[in-house]
Design goal:
With 609 residues, the chain is mainly β. The chain is 15% helix and 41% strand. Strand 22 and strand 23 form a beta hairpin. The protein is elongated. It starts with 12 loop residues before the first helix and ends with a helix.
Length: 609
Amino acid sequence: MPDEAGCGGGGGLKGRLLAAPGTRRTLLALLMLLVMSHATAKDCSFPSTYSGRWFQMGKEGPIIANSTHLLDRRCIARKGNDTFLTYDENTEKCYRCMIFTERHENVIQYRESSYCLSYEVDLDTACGELASDDSLYSMFRIDAKPISCPFSGMPFSFSYNRGHGDCEALENQAESCTDDSKLLLKYQACADIKGAESSTEELQCLATWKDGRIMYLLGTLKVPGRPQVYEDTYRCFLYEKIHHVNSNKTEYLISQSGDQSCNGLTAVTEGARTFHFIKVDKEHTKCKYPSWVTQHHDWHLLDGSRSYHFTTGNSTLKVTYRDEYDREEKVICHNLEKVQSDHRGTAVKLVAHVTSGCDTGYICMIFRKRDGHVIEIQQSNQKMIMPYEACTLDDPSKQPFSTLITSNLHKRSCPQPGHYTVIDLLSTPQLKLSRHHRSLVKRRAWNGETNEAGSPNDDCQNTDVQIGCTSSGPNEMIIQESCKRTDTVLAYSCHGSWEENGTWYTIVSRNKTGLEKETLCVSMRVSESTKELPGRVGRVEQQELWLSRPQTVCQRSVSADQWTYKLANQGVCEDLMKEASSSAASSSLMRVSVEMSVVVTLLCGILSR
């Protein structure tokens, strides 16, 4: 009877149920689910994106998160990717519910149950009392990768308020740095506003996210040059962009948290500090660099230590310094001041906005056209806060010239063509030199060498300079020395010249070794001198050419002791060519005369027989 009631052996109801194949499969599935549920609870893990080192205000040291632990709490159970039952292993020894929201790879926010249970319950029970208005905690990733700041259209003028009224000084400027993840905030003092003082802060953007209609930004605020604990610099911001289509004006309303959290931010008009960014000035979008500059997008200094690249829009210039820092400047044309074109050439003066790292401001620049492939730039030393100050407070015409060339230079005729011999070597500390040493120093000076080592028997007999008189044509300059053991010939190609205050400046190049080419600048000045020559009565005029050693800069205001050579002109190219032709003709006539004499002599001998 018990078996028939299903409480006995295999012949009863229980036996018949277990014997049914469908029932066995159902029971096995239920058992597997129980096992998997138990295993999941024991193998609970946090998402891999949580792993790393985090900062949270009020917590000592960095928070270390991995797959099983976060905030000294062990993962007990999870539901989806955001709800967890955790156990505090160190202090409270109890269970809490935690609900996470991953705002950005660099920002995680969470709420947790206010009570801590001393006994383990299921996840739904632990999280049942957690309300949406419970305290929100923010964790910021340490060593986070920065992002581009969301404020487009830099620079902005702005007003700011620290709770005592708006400081609306025109000089308050927000400017982007070369690194677009950084923003420079320049505050000016307002005498009638408490707490409004002149200062500068650097904002680095780390994360942005949207919560409903509100936009959030996480960043760090630091004072350049002032040591600060990195964790103390975290700040949260709310921001809203307002664009006026009719006036093409862009505004941003911004509020800032007062501590290293996102607490207390409810509106863009309320916060520990509020900002009103305004962008009205669109003048720089109309300003373009001169067309004779931007027809070549790439330029560089003679020694290649600095390169200039003009972007496609012809309003932005990127300058790269090839030094130990490999820094870069962004120079945006702001407005044209003056365009000059006369007998001295073409020049343009303009105001530009410069960004070098987070060092920003306005400078005044002068571009001068020297040749199709040669330009020169002068720029003011100081960066000004306002554009109208750039050309009025710092005159760029008093600053050194930067001579720029393109990668592909065309040959041009050399100035002051003629054949010259060296009268004297000027820029040398030695007062008395032997003929050999004087010639040797001359040769080494043109090669860029300064030592005087050499063989005393290698006596040089002649030194001369030919400018535009060579077989290669008018665009070549030859420095030639004839010595007993060696003949030295230095050949330079001319690539463009200009004259300033009686001095000619010429861009020259020469091949050094293999495919390596050196580009330099030579200075020339012509003077007329009178001197007494042996065998003649009175004094005669003689043209002299003062010539500098080629350098990587076109040096202005060359003093007497900076000229390398004083040269005597032996004639212009046309005279030399005529003389050569005349000599060739005389030689030919002499040969004909000799040949005729021989023929006459032979004829006379034959006839006399």
